[in-house]
UniProtKB/TrEMBL annotation:
Assigned EC number: 4.1.3.27
UniProt-listed PROSITE patterns: GATASE_TYPE_1
The protein's name: anthranilate synthase
Entry keyword set: Glutamine amidotransferase, Lyase
This protein's record includes keyword Endoplasmic reticulum: no
Reactions performed catalytically: chorismate + L-glutamine = anthranilate + pyruvate + L-glutamate + H(+)
Amino acid sequence: MTHLHDLLAAVDAGVDPGPFALVRRAEADGLDLFTGSVRTVDRLADIPLPAGAPGPRTLALVPYRQITERGFACVDDGAPLECLLVGRHERVGLAEALAALPEGPVRATGAAFDVGDEEYAATVGRVLAEEIGRGEGANFVIHRTLTATVQGPPLVAALAALRRLLLAERGAYWTFVVHTGTRILVGASPERHVSVDDGLVMMNPISGTFRHPGAAVDRAALLRFLADPKEVEELYMVLDEELKMMASVAEHGGQVVGPYLKEMSHLAHTEYLLAGRSTRDVREVLRETMFAPTVTGSPMENACRVIARHEHTGRRYYSGVLALLGHDDAGRQTLDAPILIRTAEISPAGALRVSVGATLVRHSTAAGEVAETHAKAAGVLAALGLGPEADAGREGAPRLADDPEVRAALAARNAPLARFWLDQRAPDAPGLPGLAGRTALIVDGEDTFTGMLAHQLRALGLAVTVRPWHAPGPVDAYDLVVVGPGPGDPGSATDPKMRALRGLLTGLLDAGRPTLAVCLGHQLLAGLLGLPPHRRDAPYQGLQREVDIFGTRRRVGFYATFTARADTDGLDTAYGRVELARDGADGAVHALRGRSFAGVQFHPESVLSPDGMAVLAELLPPLLPGRPAASGTGHSAAGAA
């Protein structure tokens, strides 16, 4: 008799079998059974990863509140970081597991969302108007939670739900039940957050949701979904955000692979894969990628503030991760971490929670996002007896992704994207003449797009340092200072960040130091030159446009709610003549350049900017005409801070 049968026999007899996890990974032909002891730790760095034989060593349940490790805001509910220390690991065949797991019905009563449909729709409206509409970010995920009470022994119900998920759900990255003694998690997560194997870091941004009833999928409706600008832009935005994360953990940034169609029982999603090489400890990788933009928003730090403003309860484990840490045969660290979505948390007393969220972008509608939360909950709720069971009739049907028109529609999504992130890049490729060996400081305005920008500047030959806007330090050791992007109102006279960045820019302009300003930096620079920013009627968040940049048509990506405007192509300022590249229709200033400075309203580093590298290659050399790094100015990167 296997260990699984012993464990299930104890559960059937009403005896607590001790902590365990039963996991099917990426539609494997078997399941992993982990048993051992549980330890609670405070930080991700404290997750045990003991040396020893190859294989999994620790399964960590990482709650959303761990985001505070990065200094980000959250509604802190005190959910613990629990670690199952793997004492025994065995593989169980899928057929054996299905035969052994309980088949009885799962019953739960008193099901209701903590935030009703009307209240959730009102929140959607507020976020669109007050956050996206005021420049706080490009997209945000707001959650709601269905609560109910499980009838009968909770562990029996969770194991029966696991069996139903194994039979009915398709396309899951992990299908699992985890029992720690203080809680049970059961679910079928579609999304890998991050994995590390042989030094290769992989991330899996998923976004865009096509709802279908099961077997009878409307092919024409699917093709309309794949062409829907909202769904396309939503995926591009989370791709950009995860590329920012990959830029921080992979030595040469990430390479984009895809897109693909992920097919599940009630839904289909579009997804990309990102890959990059890293030598960092897997716990550092986990920390630097907390948490996926598909469950938070972008830019990440401000998305957490927005979530805390609009969510009145903590998320517990929703949008956190399960993290399986171990070693391979060569002793290298491994990590496999799915996002905790489409997951139920059950207490020992039978209290049930299923949290879901919708990604809010500028095209969102309240009714559409309410419907999306219901659809996302459908699979796990069906397994718990709280909804109709998934139609298993597609089990032998052809995959939708194999349809030639579907493949063509997916492939077409890459046509407008930046090849810099899609193509394999040689890390030792030569940079531009005149830039190789020069140094650049990027001042981060709370948007880690700066990490992607750093990789582009390094590819052009520059040695790059990134520094937060509030961190003091000199700028006179660098040939170029880049005042980077970030959220917020550039016209604010009281925001400490805006005051500090204005002070920095003023010092740079006065000293004639080579300066590049991007997005927020550009808006602040334009204001100092006499062109105060205006709020757009319709935000340019995640929008790609072809615009004229100093006589050349360039296709670039915008993430902005504010823009400077001008009615002329040139401007005389205290810092000399400034040339403006502006929109002929509304006067929006897309770029500017003067004797020692340049600014761009768009993001040359974005995956939405296929001409971003060309713009940088045009703007930077004139700013650095063979001059060495200046000294003695003593300006601080924190400006007036």
